[in-house]
Design brief:
284 residues, 9 strands
């Protein structure tokens, strides 16, 4: 079972003690590329597997403040270093137009190696959140030369932190209507993309997906990076720790409920709907 006090303790200890280091593994994608994968083993007996896709230009290690509590809550995690990362040794060989196909092939390689046909959870942040939503059934644009299904029928659930909204050339509002898996879609009231009217654009997947086990989480006073706590640790801005604490707690309850079949976590998730000062959780 996922215990609320244990979750909050896991978040609180991140600032006081180093997180468990990831091990590294190298896989080969269907197009012959080598992809480096960061792997975190669950604390105790694994309750499930999360395959995580990082945001544009970022890297798996820059999400330790999010991934470590999930690991501590009992989930194995594997996350590839995508070609658009500033940490990728061959980044100069790939334009941003190449990254969509490469990301999908990276995740396909991970699913083969780590899930082996068994159910898993797709998760991601920003650009990586769109990857996770696509794996869960959202009908994004097919990259040129990509063969086979964009989605993966073995996925149990999707966790999408701050996904892009309707994006010409990537996904339409209609595309979100085929999201087939339970999903948690998060944003924050300071999470406003350049040129967008407000933060609500990040909820396009939640608002357009068919009803049924779709959760929208809006965190008060939270931007795209929780200050500097995920994706861009180099940002010289205050940490939005309370927002991240709440995001971790709700996401871990969702993971336990839909990834591990934990009825108490499901009940806690239901009880949290619309009843939080840090952020509002809704269900459709």
């Amino acid at each position: 079972m996922i215990d609320r006090r244990s979750l909050l303790a896991a978040v609180a200890t991140l600032a006081a003690a180093p997180a468990m280091a990831a091990s590294l593994r190298t896989l080969t994608t269907d197009d012959g590329r080598q992809v480096q994968v960061s792997v975190w083993k669950a604390s105790g007996k694994p309750k499930g597997l999360i395959l995580f896709s990082h945001g544009a230009l970022s890297a798996p290690g820059k999400y330790v403040n999010l991934l470590e509590p999930w690991r501590a809550a009992g989930f194995d995690i594997a996350a590839p270093l995508h070609v658009d990362s500033t940490d990728h040794p061959d980044r100069a060989k790939y334009g941003m137009a190449d990254s969509w196909k490469a990301r999908l092939l990276d995740m396909r390689a991970l699913a083969k190696a780590f899930a082996g046909g068994k159910p898993y959870i797709a998760a991601g942040h920003s650009y990586g959140a769109l990857v996770a939503l696509t794996l869960g059934g959202a009908a994004a644009e097919r990259p040129a030369g990509f063969e086979g299904s964009l989605s993966d029928a073995t996925i149990k659930a999707v966790v999408a932190f701050s996904p892009p909204g309707v994006t010409p050339g990537l996904i339409s509002a209609e595309g979100f209507k085929s999201l087939a898996r339970p999903a948690l879609i998060q944003t924050g009231t300071l999470d406003v993309p350049p040129g967008a009217p407000d933060w609500r654009v990040h909820l396009a997947a939640f608002e357009n997906a068919p009803p049924g086990d779709k959760y929208g989480l809006v965190l008060e006073g939270v931007d795209h990076y929780f200050g500097h706590l995920i994706c861009r640790p180099e940002r010289d801005v205050p940490a939005q720790s309370e927002g991240l604490k709440r995001g971790v707690e709700i996401s871990a309850q969702f993971l336990a409920a839909y990834g591990a079949g934990d009825r108490k976590a499901a009940a806690a998730l239901t009880a949290a709907i619309g009843k939080d000062a840090v952020g509002e959780l809704t269900l459709r």
